[in-house]
Amino acid sequence: MRAMDARGAGRACHFAASICLLLCSTVLGAEVAGPIQVSPNGRYFVDQKGEPFFWLGDTAWPLFVKYNKSQAEAYLKNRSAKGFTVIQGVLAWSQGTGAESRSPGANPNGDKPWIDDDPARPNDSFFRHVDYLVEFARQQGLVLAILPTWGYYVNDTQVINLQNARVYGRWLGSRYRRASNIVWVNGGDRIATGYEDVWRELALGLREGDGGAHLITYHPCGWRSSSQYFHTEDWLDFNMIETWTAWPKIHPAVLADVVRTPVKPVVLGEPAYENGPEYPLGPITPLIVRRQAWWTVTAGGFFTYGQDQMWRMHEGWDETFDTPGAGNVCMMKEILAGLPWWEFTPDQSVFDTGVSSERTLNTAMRSPGGDRVLVYLSSQCSVSIHLDKIAAAQARATFINPATGERRKAGAYRTGNLNDRTFPDGQTQFFTTPGHWEDAVLLLEAAGQGAR
Question: Is the pTM higher than 0.85?
Answer without folding.
Answer: yes
